[in-house]
Specification:
Layout (H helix, E strand, L loop, with lengths): L3 H19 L10 H53 L5 H5 L1 H4 L6 H23 L14 H53 L4 H10 L11
Helix pairs in contact: 1-2, 1-6, 1-7, 2-5, 2-6, 5-6
Length: about 220
């Protein structure tokens, strides 16, 4: 189904074609056919800008969601890995109580749990380094340094998403405002064409056949 701007653009192209053929020197509210054609080009550019902004906003949101999921996964998995390495009486194991009280179901809670977990994770690694194996705790290929960087950068991801969504909102608004302007010109031009064609049956017949008009609404009695 065509979008609102596509309907206006289609009618605008029909208007320009008729305008150039029958009334090329006519102006409508100070606008000539060349300016109206240029406005149709601008309408298309604004529509493309909105699509570009929509794509960028979607990409930013997907990146943000992926980062949230990665942090949440580590928030849930790493405490379990630490628990498996220390007995209940060990200070590192006891420190995890502060982590377990936070359920990472939102951005704020996910970050809060991560920021509490990071120093405990580092402490656990320091304790493990004293053992013969000296194996630091990792989840897949992510160590505590990488996790800390992920957490530090997450607010930037949120801001990038917010900025991209604001840019999309602005592009949508610009498209709608300009589309209304073009739509008004389409209708004003049609009214003027109709007035000029009153005494010329041939021109009026072409006008009726060549320019798309809105269907009248039928209200229920």
């Amino acid at each position: 189904m065509p979008e609102f701007w596509q309907k206006t653009h289609k009618r605008g192209m029909e208007t320009v074609t008729f305008w150039r053929k029958f009334f090329p020197l006519m102006s409508v509210a100070g606008t000539g056919v060349d300016q109206h054609a240029a406005n149709l080009d601008q309408l298309g550019r604004l529509a493309q800008e909105r699509e570009n902004r929509k794509t960028a906003a979607k990409q930013m949101k997907n990146t943000e969601l992926a980062q949230f999921a990665a942090i949440r996964t580590l928030n849930l998995a790493v405490p379990q890995l630490i628990t498996a390495q220390f007995d209940e009486s060990h200070p590192v194991r006891q420190s995890l109580a502060a982590v377990f009280t936070i359920v990472p179901r939102s951005d704020a809670l996910n970050l809060r749990r991560a920021r509490i977990l990071i120093p405990i994770w580092k402490q656990a690694n320091a304790e493990l380094a004293k053992r013969p194996s000296g194996t630091a705790i990792m989840r897949d290929t992510t160590d505590v340094a990488a996790f800390e960087q992920m957490v530090m950068r997450y607010p930037e991801r949120l801001q990038e998403t917010s900025d991209a969504e604001a840019a999309l909102t602005s592009a949508r608004g610009a498209l709608r405002i300009f589309c209304r302007q073009v739509d008004r010109m389409n209708k004003r031009a049609y009214l003027k064409f109709s007035a000029e064609a009153r005494t010329d049956a041939t021109v009026r017949e072409v006008l009726l056949a060549s320019i798309t008009r809105e269907k009248p609404s039928h209200k229920r009695a």
